[in-house]
Structures are given as C-alpha cells and as structure tokens.
Backbone:
C-alpha cells in the first residue's frame, strides 16, 4: 500500500476526456515520475491530487485519508507540498519572510493570528529557516527581495519553502521547465540530495528525460488520460509502447 | 523600547513628539503677520488631522497590507459617530463609553460587511463594499430616520435621558462632552511675543488615541499576522498551497480597519456631538483612499501624512480668496497684479480641489510610494541612509 493511492480517477472537461481509469500507487520514500506527451493529462492529474480540481470518478487517498473535496490548504496541512511549473513565491517579501510563512503555517495551522509579537522574535523558527537556506546555498541572500532573483534561485527558494514544512509527499510540476542546462543540472543535484538526505516521497511530472532518468525509482507513462505502462526506469527506456507514444518523438530533446 | 525594533521606536518617538508639540509646529507664523492664515494650529483643525490620521492608519492595515481596496470604509466611520451620539443621549456625556461603543458597533458592522464582501477579490470586492456603504448612507438618510434623524443629523437635546449624567446643566443648557469631568472644548491659550498657541483638551485626547492606534499598527505590521497579510497581497496561490487559509486573515484585517474607522467616528462625535448621514457617503470613503495613497500605502507613517495633507488643503488652501491674493501681489503694477491673481485664482479658494488633484496626479505618476517615498528620496539626496518609513526629513504640516 503506497502513501498515495489513486484509484479509477476520471475527469472530463465538457466533451474532452482528460483522465480516465487512472490508477497509481506511489510507495513511501521513493521518487515516482509521471511522464507523457503534451495533453496526456499530467497536470490535470496533479491538480486532482492537490485539491485544485475534483475528479468526476474514483478516489485519491493520501496516507490513509481521502483528499477529495478538501481545499488546497487543507491538503497541504495533511502533508503534501507542491512546487509549481513557474515558481510561485511571495515576490514582494524577502527571502527570509518567504521561509517564515511556511514555518508558521506548519506550526500554527491554517489561520492563527499572532498580531502582537514581532516575526523576528520567533528565534526557533528563524534558526530553522536559516538552516534550510544554508542547505540550499541561499543563506547569503536571506534579506534579498525575491522579485529580482534569477529563475533558478526562485525555484530553489520555492523548494526550500516546501521542504521546510517537512512534507510527506513533495509534488514537483516540471521543476526544470524553461531552465538552462546548468540550472537543470543544479536542480537535479539538489533533488538527489533531498531524496538521499530526507525521508520524503517525491512525485514528479517532467518533460526532460534526463531529469526523469536521473531521479525516478519508478515511472508511469500517461497517454491520452490513461496510464500506459508503469515500471522501473530501465524497463521504460526500451518499452515499445512507450517509444511509440512518447519517447520516439521527443527523447533527449 | 516598547517591544519594537530601534527603527520603529524612533519613528514612534518622532510621531509622539510631533503630535504633542503640534500646537507649536502648526502655528509657525506670528498672529498678526500676513502668513498667519497658513497657521493650522487651531483646535478644530488639529483634531481633524489626528482623527483622520486614525481613520487612514486603520484603512492602511487593510489596503496597504492585503491590497484589498475597500470603497466603503466611511460607513464604519458613520456608524461609529451615530453610536457615540446615542451614548451621549442615553448614558452620559463622558466620551469613554461612547468611544468604546463606537468601536464595538463598527467592529460588528464591519464583520458582517466584510464576511460578505470578502467572497470576492479585486474590483468586485471594491464594488461590493461601495454598494454596502451607499446602502448604509441611503438607510441613514431616509429609512432609518428614527435612529439617525435623517437629513438633519443626530444631535443631543435638552430632554435626552442621559441616565448616568444630567439632561441639562443648572443654567438650562446642553451639557458638553467630557472625559471624567475634563471638557473636550476646554482650551488654554499661550501668548509668546507675537505668537499665540492654543492647547485644546479635545485635541490631546485624540492625539493620545492616535499614538496608541499608531503603536498598534506598528505591532501589527511587524507581527506574523502582518506578514501573512502582505503574503496575501503578494501571492494567494502560494498562500493556499502553503497550508494557509487567506479568508480569516483578510476578514480580521477588515474588521480591525473597521474598528479604527469606528474609533475615528466616535472621536468626531466626541469633539462635536452630532452625526450626519453625509459622513457615510462614498466621497468620504474615497477621501480615505486618497489619503492612504497620497501618503504611501503600505508604509507606517504614510497614511497619517496623507490625512494631514488633505485636511490642510481642505481647510487652509480653501480660505485663500481673491482678496488675499490681491494683498499678496499688491507690490506689482496693477496689470501684472491682476494677471497673477487671474492665474492663481483657479488653484486656491474654492479651487483647492484642483491643486490637490494635480498633486495627487504627480504623486501617483512619479512617486508611487507616496509622500514617504518622496521623503526617502530627499533623504538619499542629502546622502543620509534613510530607513524605510522614516519621515524626519519631511516638513509636512502634519504629524
């Protein structure tokens, strides 16, 4: 039984069948990649996991509880953190403040109002945030405003913000999309380091095969809203069905 | 000091000094000089500076931090005024219960309106608040006449019960508002050579409350709650996916700013015990938006500066009429004198709105951070490192 169990999930948008009969099981402390050509339903599936969309049929169980009908903030509080395709950070706030917000969310829940003491008086949380920033090599940027940072740094910060919440499951939506090769390699190193040093389950949606094959323990190939194959990376590489649906046209693009 | 960082403590001390010394600072010109009409140090106007300062400080907690632009905050101010006057009618002329009731009622009223309006964001939120405020205005003006006394406005009369006080004084006149016996209208004059300064009880009561309001706003700005509010303005998506529900935060900010508006309304009624529906009109709501943007939305001191500036224009610039202009330019030959008066005429007196409008336009176009940004730029020009929110380089006639 995996930490994330997706059963018979289907989703239609009007006449378009975005997902049908999706079954997926992500085992604890593994990295599970979901790949597929454009329009295969990868993002729709991801949105069904985090509460942005509600599937028409089927069930999504996380850690033994259903996520269906819960809003994104409730699902995050269950232990799922999401990294977006374009980094979603608080761009008017400093790096340190960006780190403090997830810490408060994790410690105090969805809506505690501390209106009297100052943010910086929370010494314990400040230390935690500094440690995390040091882990992702961003401590020197702690007082920087995030709006002026490079995309790679924004991505790094967003991951740090997700990791500091110590999620059970980290969802990555094309974390290297639009990145230069050097940034991509840095991100892969960072993710490898995260995977090796923490007890964390990672589900990743990715176009870049280099990224997928460097990180994934298992791969699910999605095509036209349905899982085609699920296997270990070595088997996926040579799988004829996969080649036909996907790898044949964009491998090592 | 006061549990604040050094920078904020300094700012607070500056504000305290400016408010306490305002009767001197706002009366820089000798009483008999030609410039005496620029003196703003009379009680009525000073009270208005600080009362609207409180209103704008509260509005800034909502608009400056969360970015939710409410166009209906005058409704809370009006509700506060009505509550206070009712307290004067029924309980006593002591302003303390009146102000407490103003804040409480405005808080409850803003809870209701905020709860409904905050279902939408952006322009739809603004329109909802505007609609509610206009409904409140219309109700106060007509339907609710038994409570609000319609277009005449709610006033205190000789036969009000005032169960804890007296209906009328020994000589048969209406009692005056007071704080445990200290009358709000009491003033002391101090003549120093050619200068004369007026110290008003009412002003100092308002000033102390504004300092408290300002102090609370600093604490909110620096607190985790304030950080969450800025996070809401910055990125609601990330907020949701970080496990936070933005709604309770925005609602709390809305209610807090509504209570500030109620406090301002209650103080207004305490200084002059009457309340009219026009205080709730949309122009009054728009005015506080202008104050906040002019001073610098999202900065600590900006709203107070904006409030001071607008009230100064409204009360001082509007009094410069053609006669005054003629005396200014009387040293010129007649033709030139008339020309100068003709040029300046549209901008002063009844035309003060035009001057204010031009200043507002220039500020929004060239100083998006408002007067505070202007102060910072001036500070940088003189090569001093200016912390944000510092305004010591400014010479605005506001505190």
Residues:
């Amino acid at each position: 039984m995996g930490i994330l169990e997706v059963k018979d999930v289907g989703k239609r948008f009007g006449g378009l069948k975005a997902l049908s009969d999706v079954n997926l099981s992500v085992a604890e402390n593994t990295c599970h990649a979901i790949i597929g050509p454009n329009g295969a339903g990868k993002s729709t599936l991801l949105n069904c996991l985090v509460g942005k969309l509600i599937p028409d049929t089927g069930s999504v169980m996380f850690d033994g509880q259903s996520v269906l009908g819960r809003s994104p903030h409730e699902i995050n509080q269950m232990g799922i953190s999401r990294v977006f395709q374009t980094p979603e950070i608080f761009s008017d706030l400093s790096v340190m403040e960006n780190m403090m917000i997830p810490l408060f969310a994790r410690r105090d829940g969805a809506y505690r109002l501390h209106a009297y003491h100052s943010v910086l008086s929370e010494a314990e949380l400040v230390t935690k945030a500094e440690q995390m920033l040091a882990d992702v090599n961003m401590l020197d940027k702690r007082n920087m405003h995030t709006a002026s940072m490079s995309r790679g740094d924004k991505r790094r910060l967003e991951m740090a913000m997700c990791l500091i919440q110590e999620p059970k499951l980290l969802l990555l939506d094309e974390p290297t999309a639009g990145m230069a090769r050097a940034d991509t390699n840095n991100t892969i190193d960072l993710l490898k380091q995260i995977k090796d040093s923490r007890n964390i389950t990672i589900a990743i949606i990715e176009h870049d095969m280099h990224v997928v094959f460097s990180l994934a323990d298992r791969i699910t190939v999605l095509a036209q809203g349905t899982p085609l194959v699920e296997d270990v990376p070595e088997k996926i590489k040579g799988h004829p069905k996969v080649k036909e649906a996907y790898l044949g046209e964009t491998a090592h693009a | 000091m006061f549990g604040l960082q050094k920078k904020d403590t300094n700012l607070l001390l500056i504000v305290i000094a400016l408010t306490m010394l305002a009767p001197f600072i706002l009366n820089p010109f000798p009483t008999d000089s030609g410039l005496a009409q620029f003196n703003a140090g009379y009680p009525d106007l000073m009270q208005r500076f600080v009362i609207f300062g409180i209103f704008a400080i509260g509005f800034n907690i909502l608009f400056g931090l969360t970015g939710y632009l409410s166009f209906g905050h005058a409704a809370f101010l009006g509700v506060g005024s009505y509550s206070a006057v009712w307290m004067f009618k029924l309980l006593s002329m002591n302003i303390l219960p009146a102000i407490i009731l103003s804040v409480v009622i405005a808080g409850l009223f803003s809870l209701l309106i905020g709860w409904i309006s905050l279902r939408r964001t952006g322009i739809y939120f603004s329109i909802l608040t505007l609609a509610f405020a206009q409904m409140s205005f219309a109700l106060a003006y007509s339907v609710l006449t038994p409570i609000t006394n319609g277009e005449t406005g709610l006033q205190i009369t000789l036969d009000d019960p005032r169960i804890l006080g007296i209906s009328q004084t020994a000589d048969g006149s209406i009692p005056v508002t007071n704080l445990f016996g200290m009358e709000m209208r009491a003033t002391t004059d101090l003549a120093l050579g050619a200068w004369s300064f007026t110290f008003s009880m009412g002003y100092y009561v308002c000033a102390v409350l504004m300092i408290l309001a300002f102090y609370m706003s600093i604490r909110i700005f620096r607190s985790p709650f304030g950080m969450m509010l800025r996070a809401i303005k910055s990125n609601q998506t990330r907020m949701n996916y970080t496990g936070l529900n933005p709604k309770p935060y925005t609602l709390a900010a809305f209610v807090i700013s509504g209570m500030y508006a109620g406090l301002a309304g209650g103080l207004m009624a305490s200084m002059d015990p009457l309340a009219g529906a026009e205080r709730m009109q949309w122009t009054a709501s728009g005015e506080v938006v202008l104050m906040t943007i002019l001073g610098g939305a999202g900065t600590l001191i900006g709203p107070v500066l904006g409030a001071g500036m607008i009230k100064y224009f409204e009360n001082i610039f509007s009094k410069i009429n053609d006669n005054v202009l003629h005396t200014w330019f009387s040293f010129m030959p007649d033709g030139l004198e008339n020309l100068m008066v003709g040029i300046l005429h549209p901008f002063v007196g009844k035309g003060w709105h035009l001057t204010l409008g031009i200043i507002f336009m220039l500020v929004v176009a060239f100083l998006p951070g408002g007067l505070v940004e202007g102060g910072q730029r001036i500070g940088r020009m003189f090569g001093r490192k200016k912390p944000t929110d510092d305004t010591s380089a400014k010479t605005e006639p506001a505190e």
